[in-house]
């Protein structure tokens, strides 16, 4: 197999500038994802717990096979679309294994605006 020769020069100023810019973007992405994963916030999650209900991501974790991964998708659905925060458009969706079978999982997050559906929550493409 032929060797792939790169033209990337990690010592160049352009490479260094791009690295700094990318690290900044990745940091912003991680901050935004952490905020999104809070859903409706600690108070809303605590209200759910007082009702004997698990937060949405804990429900999903209890559903999927132990030790398996959950590939969450659409985390930025409705991101900065509405005046108020609507993390994941109020619905957590992704792919996980249930009894050894890959499944599409969609779970309403009642901690986000009491489970209210917004137009983007149910928008089809």
TrEMBL record:
<dbReference type="GO" id="GO:0006552">
    <property type="term" value="P:L-leucine catabolic process"/>
</dbReference>
<dbReference type="InterPro" id="IPR034733">
    <property type="entry name" value="AcCoA_carboxyl_beta"/>
</dbReference>
<dbReference type="GO" id="GO:0004485">
    <property type="term" value="F:methylcrotonoyl-CoA carboxylase activity"/>
</dbReference>
<dbReference type="InterPro" id="IPR045190">
    <property type="entry name" value="MCCB/AccD1-like"/>
</dbReference>
<dbReference type="Pfam" id="PF01039">
    <property type="entry name" value="Carboxyl_trans"/>
</dbReference>
<feature type="domain" description="CoA carboxyltransferase N-terminal">
    <location>
        <begin position="22"/>
        <end position="125"/>
    </location>
</feature>
<protein>
    <submittedName>
        <fullName>Methylcrotonyl-CoA carboxylase carboxyl transferase subunit</fullName>
        <ecNumber>6.4.1.4</ecNumber>
    </submittedName>
</protein>
<dbReference type="InterPro" id="IPR029045">
    <property type="entry name" value="ClpP/crotonase-like_dom_sf"/>
</dbReference>
<dbReference type="GO" id="GO:0016740">
    <property type="term" value="F:transferase activity"/>
</dbReference>
<dbReference type="GO" id="GO:1905202">
    <property type="term" value="C:methylcrotonoyl-CoA carboxylase complex"/>
</dbReference>
<keyword id="KW-0808">Transferase</keyword>
<keyword id="KW-0436">Ligase</keyword>
<dbReference type="InterPro" id="IPR011762">
    <property type="entry name" value="COA_CT_N"/>
</dbReference>
């Amino acid at each position: 197999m032929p060797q792939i020769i790169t033209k990337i020069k990690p010592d160049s100023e352009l490479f260094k500038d791009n690295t700094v810019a990318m690290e900044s973007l990745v940091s912003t992405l991680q901050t935004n994802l952490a905020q999104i994963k809070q859903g409706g916030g600690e108070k809303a999650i605590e209200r759910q717990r007082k009702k004997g209900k698990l937060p949405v991501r804990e429900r999903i974790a209890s559903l999927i096979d132990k030790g398996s991964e959950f590939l969450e998708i659409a985390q930025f659905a409705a991101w900065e679309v509405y005046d108020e925060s609507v993390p994941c458009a109020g619905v957590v969706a992704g792919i996980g294994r249930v009894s050894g079978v890959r499944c599409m999982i969609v779970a309403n997050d009642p901690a986000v605006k009491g489970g209210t559906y917004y137009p983007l929550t149910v928008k089809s493409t």
